[in-house]
Amino acid sequence: MIRLSAGTAACLGLTRLKSAALPTTAYLLYGEGCLLDCAFCPQARGASAQMGRLGRVNWIAFPPDRLRDCFQNAASAGLKRICLQSVRGKDGLAALPEFIAALKAASGLPVSVSARIESTAEAAALLEAGAERVSVALDAVNSDLYARFKGGSYDQRYNLLLDCARRFPGRVGTHIICGLGETEEDAASVIAWLFCEGVSVALFAFVPLKGTRLAGHPPPDPASYRRLQALHYLLRQGSISYPELRFGQGRLVSFGLDPVELKRHLAGGEAFQTSGCPGCNRPYYNERPGGFIYNYPRPLSADEVEEALSLILETGG
C-alpha cells in the first residue's frame, strides 16, 4: 500500500476534504516499519503513533494500481511536483527506483525523493530512476542534537550531504528542523554553508506529536522562527552574507541591514512561505488549522506580512 497525504488524495479526487489550502505538490509516503528511531517522527521504530501519521498530516493508504490512473491526471489537478517520502525498511531503498520510474511515467511531473540515503550510490540510483532531486535530511544542526534525537554521527551525515551535492549539483537538498534546542547561530551557520555548497534547504518547525519521544517538547518560538525564515530567504536571494550577521548569546540580533532596507527585502512575504523544492507548499504540515502558521502554504495577505515583519524587526535590523 502507498499512503497519500489527505490533501493530495483530495486533489486527485480520491477523497473529499475541506481545506483553506490544498497542496501544490503530491505527497506520498512509501513503506512501513522504519528501522530508524528519530525522536520526533511518528514513523520511528520506537514510536507508538499511528502508521498513518507524519507531521500533523493524515496519510491515507491506497493500493498502487488505483493510484496509477489518478496520477495521469495529476497536472490537470493543479499538482506541480511529486514528493516521495520513504521510511528506511529492512530492504533499504531497493524498491524505490522502480516506483519512481512508474510515478514519473504516469504523471510526467518532476519527482523529489526524501529518504534515508546512506551513500552517493543510493542517491545516484534514485536520480537515474527519474528523480529530479533527492534530499539527504540533516534535521538537527549540530552533533549533540543529532546524536540525541536521530542517533549516529552528524559529521558523517553532513559529509554525505556535501558529497552528494558536489557529485549531483543542483539536485540535492536537505531538511532542517528548527526548535530542537539549537541556537539561531547554530542554524544560521549551517544554512549559510549549505547554500554556498549549492544545497537547497527546507525549513521545518518542530512539531510535538503524540506517540513520539519528543511529544512534550515545545514548538519553536514564533519570533525565532521568523528570524530564521528571513535569514534563509535573504541568504538564498544573495541580499546578505553570513559575515554581515550579528548574534548575541546565540540569538540573531542583526542581519546587517537597516530596518527600512530589511523591511523592503521582506515586504513581499515570500520569506514566510514554505521553503523546499519548487512547487512545494506542505499545507498544515507544521501547523494546527487556526493556530500560528509557521510556513504559509500560499501568498500572504498584507496584514500577515505586517505581523511577520513586526516579529522580525524585534531584532533591530
Main attributes of the structure:
317 residues, alpha/beta, 10 helices, globular, single chain, 16% strand, 11 strands, 9-stranded mixed β-sheet, TIM Barrel, 33% helix, two-stranded antiparallel sheet
Instruction: Bin the helical content.
Output: 25-40%
| Largest sheet descriptor | 9 strands, mixed
CATH superfamily: Aldolase class I
Stretches where pLDDT falls below 50 for ≥5 residues?
Answer: none
- The tally of helices reads 10
**What's the structural domain tally?**
1
Count the beta strands.
Answer: 11
Strand order within the widest beta sheet = 3-4-1-2-5-6-7-8-9
The portion of residues forming beta strands comes to 15-25%
Write down the Rg.
19 Å
CATH topology (fold) name: TIM Barrel
Q: In the CATH hierarchy, what is the class? A: Alpha Beta
Shape: globular
Overall pLDDT score: 93
Structural class: alpha/beta
In N-to-C order, the SSE pattern is EHEEEHEHEHEHHEHEHEEHH
- Using the 3D structure, state the CATH architecture: Alpha-Beta Barrel
Terminal CA distance: 50 Å
